[in-house]
Hints:
11-stranded parallel β-sheet; Pectate Lyase C-like; alpha/beta; 15 helices; 8-stranded parallel β-sheet; globular
Amino acid sequence: MEVMMKRFMKSAFFYLVFLLLIIGNSFSQVPSGEIKPLDSEALKGKVEHDILVAQDGSGHFKTVGEALDAIRVYLPKPLTVYIKPGIYQEKLTILGPVTNVTFLGESPENTIITYDDFAAKDNMGTFETYTLKVLGNSLTFKNLSIQNTAGPVGQAVALHAEGDRLVFENCRFIGDQDTMFASGENSRQLYKNCYIEGTTDFIFGSATALFENCTIHSKSDSYITAASTPEWVEYGYVFKNCRLTAAEGVTKVYLGRPWRDFAKTVFINTEMGAHIVPEGWHNWNREKAEQTVFYAESGSFGAGANANSRIEWSHQLSADELKSYSTDLIFSGKTTDADYFGNRWFGYRKDSSFNLQDAWKKDVKNFPQIKPIVILSSESVTESKGLVYKKLGGRELKLDVFSPIQAESPRPGIVMIHGGGWKSGDKELQIPMAIALAEKGYVTSVVEYRLSPEAQYPAAIHDVKEAIRWLKVHGNEFGLDTTLLAISGSSAGGQIAALVGMTNSRAYEGSTELTASSAVQAIIDMDGVLAFHHPESAEGQVASEWLGGTYEQKPEVWDAASPLYLEAPEMIPILFINSQYPRFHAGRDELIVKLTEKGVYSEVHAFPDSPHPFWLYDTWFNTTVEIMADFLENTLK
Length: 637
């Protein structure tokens, strides 16, 4: 009973969140100002700006098809097609050269694209019955309904999707047989918070498709999926945290049957209604398929979850197998997972595994005397928080600045980078030290940057360099002497700080419209590795997630991200502050030799009996601040 209650609460919470997501979707970014209708014929293939579609003539075009005809192929930058509420009776094809476009409706309840073709009509066959055919790549669809209203007359496709890096969020797909053709052997598709309904094989095809938090509604006794996954494709259809429902009177529905041999379909943490048959899966009367398909479940719950009754050739995922169904692994491939802005095209979840409270709980076991440092404000420091220094489409990166109130002249500055294994952590972790150093007369800034779940290397390096440029451009606002700027970092932030400070070539800079340089005059590295592949280094999985692969897979990337191995480094003074663990300063000693040979100052301070994140605790905090201040006093002149 307790387990059932937990599952009920989990389900109830999900649906509340789903409802809030739908309600919270806004249409506030529609282009403002006077909008004049455009001539789709005269502008065919030429439009590069955002487009408004409105049936009442208040937009650029009255139909979605006219907007599609106008969009320039292979756009130089992304654009959005805003679609005002209405029932758009159109049969649409988005061709392959149309990329980097978001199609945004107001809500799936009132923004509907519909048509009614079916396979037997003029003998057109299944694959010409679509309402919307998507062949382009890097496309996003939000708050829309795509439907085929032909009814129960055989195959009638609503969505035909074969492009790569396709995202459908808060959309509805309405039809009967073959509602959704999610296909393309090299296609990766994400369906998030969507509603999909149909009768037979209403999700079918060869794509690698992830369905997250979706409702899958069966309208007749039949089959939900009919995957045709190619043999060489690792993933097929994956359903996570979904809900399987049925119309009244529907009592016998299979999770799937193989349209082709080697079909792959997996359900994870999915609520299954009583309409799902105990055996779960069907072989489509082809015994060979039983030897080649991969049908699996993990954490299924509800009346239709019958793990002990499933057919013997299906699987229940082990804990280790379940690990391979993370979003990044499902969508991994030989092509890049980065979009126009360098972010993962399928989105990300913020990793909060490294935080002050959890770090303290772990470290206090070996160091019972320690207490976390918490400094919220200072009467002698002015705070400017949440300043946007970089925009990546709808994503904003922010920094905070702390300035001495009594400064009579521009002051030296410090850009501070948090740690967390390149995948977790938050700029808030650096605030106590930023305030303490601001009290000593420095203009300090803590910086948010993209972590590995969002964007892999070198995105974080580009972000931090942009933050430095932004601070220099806005230096007068904070009393910053832009000619005297240092960068500091802790753990992964220390590695980033060292790499940022020691590089000045185009490969590390990223794109920018700011004219200031990203150069700094000094580096402070607190327990950040200087060489990823090194006898003292213990970097493995976490580094691989950031660098895009293991050392064996990406040796050139591992070396390019290692300050020690830079071919033409910027040699500037460096302060190393280290814990008792050699793995966190791998490459330090060799780098010091190189600095010395160039006549560049370096300094080492080590706390022999300390945890790795020593800078977070009272035992070492004040001493660390004093060491940093002394170093900066000697170098920022």
